[in-house]
């Protein structure tokens, strides 16, 4: 039985990319493992969040995770800021990770853009907090989308440097569980950009709370090119929007891209988009409905998160105390 950790930022509402790239696997991985799933609100505030919106999104995403099949009795589900071990270990990792390592993170480069002077320092050290999230549980398995693999390599580099500097095999090696063919879902407006909660255009993503009409409208308006669908996967090269829609279809139908093209190759996008809408609506709308039912009782969601935080802290606290002792900090009491 492995201990699994993964997280999602409450920077908006979880979307189809989060679902296919991460959450559906989190649900599957509960079986036979000890799973810890976290709403990483400390990560979220590395870019500006409206405080009330952040609170609401944290609750909504908790409800969505449960609606996607995360069982808060079997798994530990909580919000990051409630377990102080994360921030304490992240500070130690700020002192272990090298500046140059962080400067090479492509997610930082993407999110900071050209205006490096004005991004928060939190955004720069984001991967150190992510390493702390995982390692404060001595978790060894991390199911994430392919976009997070560089951060996981960095977490292993931090763990190794810590172990080497202090001469003790304290932190384990993390194994990323990158999710196969459906690893990266792209924006509906631009097939070269990933689908993202914080994209200014709501049309760029399918939120897990979208109703059937909204989904149909977003897919109808999704960017495509004028050619019909090709009959083989090689002919998707240079057609990022077509590749993305076919990829989404394949993921939802649990089919290979080649099989989708065998069935739909030669079709115009009009017909294909209708079939794709049916698949998305069938998968997503029951999740949204269940989340709305759960969110109608915010007290229950808060109790679930508090219970999760207490169970998470019981695992994390001794590990972070030992890390503090190893580096030479006196015990708090
Ligand atoms: N487009 C995507 N395709 C596949 N997987 C994705 N993930 C995110 N976007 C996609 C995976 O979802 C998990 C949770 O992501 P996150 O909330 O921690 O952060 P993110 O990757 O930065 O997600 P967003 O939606 O793009 O948020 P913002 O806009 O706030 O940056 C991760 O496992 C991630 O791989």
TrEMBL record:
It is an enzyme of class 6 (ligase). GO terms for molecular function: tryptophan-tRNA ligase activity. It holds the Pfam family tRNA-synt_1b. The keyword Acetylation does not apply. L-tryptophan binds at residue 133. It comes from the Bacteria. SUPFAM superfamilies: Nucleotidylyl transferase. A motif ('KMSKS' region) lies at residues 194-198. InterPro entries: aa-tRNA-synth_Ic, Rossmann-like_a/b/a_fold, Trp-tRNA-ligase, Trp-tRNA-ligase_bac-type, Trp-tRNA_synthetase. The keyword Ligase applies. Its EC number is 6.1.1.2. Transmembrane segments: none annotated. It catalyses: tRNA(Trp) + L-tryptophan + ATP = L-tryptophyl-tRNA(Trp) + AMP + diphosphate + H(+). PANTHER family: TRYPTOPHAN--TRNA LIGASE, MITOCHONDRIAL. Catalyzes the attachment of tryptophan to tRNA(Trp). Belongs to the class-I aminoacyl-tRNA synthetase family. This is Tryptophan--tRNA ligase.
């Amino acid at each position: 039985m492995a201990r699994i950790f993964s997280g999602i930022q409450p920077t908006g509402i979880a979307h189809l990319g989060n679902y296919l790239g991460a959450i559906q696997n989190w649900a599957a991985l509960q079986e036979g493992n000890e799973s810890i799933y976290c709403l990483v609100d400390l990560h979220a505030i590395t870019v500006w969040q409206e405080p009330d919106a952040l609170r609401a999104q944290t609750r909504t995403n908790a409800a969505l995770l449960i609606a996607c099949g995360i069982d808060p009795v079997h798994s530990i589900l909580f919000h990051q800021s409630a377990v102080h071990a994360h921030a304490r270990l992240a500070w130690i990792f700020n002192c272990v990770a090298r500046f140059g390592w962080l400067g090479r993170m492509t997610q930082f480069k993407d999110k900071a853009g050209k205006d490096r002077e004005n991004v928060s320092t939190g955004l720069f050290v984001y991967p150190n907090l992510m390493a702390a999230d995982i390692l404060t549980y001595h978790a060894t398995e991390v199911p994430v989308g392919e976009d997070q693999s560089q951060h996981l390599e960095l977490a292993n580099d931090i763990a190794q440097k810590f172990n080497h500097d202090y001469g003790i095999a304290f932190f384990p090696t993390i194994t990323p569980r990158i999710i196969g063919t459906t690893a990266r879902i792209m924006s509906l407006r631009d097939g070269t950009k990933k689908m993202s909660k914080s994209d200014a255009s709501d049309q760029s993503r399918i939120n897990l709370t979208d109703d059937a009409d909204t989904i149909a409208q977003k897919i109808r308006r999704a960017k495509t090119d004028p050619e019909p669908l090709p009959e083989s996967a090689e002919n998707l090269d240079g057609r990022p929007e077509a590749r993305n829609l076919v990829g989404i279809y394949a993921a939802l139908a649990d089919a290979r891209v080649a099989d989708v093209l065998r069935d739909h190759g030669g079709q115009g996008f009009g017909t294909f988009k209708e079939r794709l809408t049916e698949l998305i609506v069938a998968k997503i709308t029951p999740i949204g409905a269940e989340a709305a039912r759960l969110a109608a009782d915010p007290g229950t969601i808060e109790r679930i998160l508090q219970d999760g935080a207490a169970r998470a802290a019981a695992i994390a606290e001794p590990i972070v105390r030992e890390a503090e002792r190893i580096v030479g900090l006196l015990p708090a009491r």
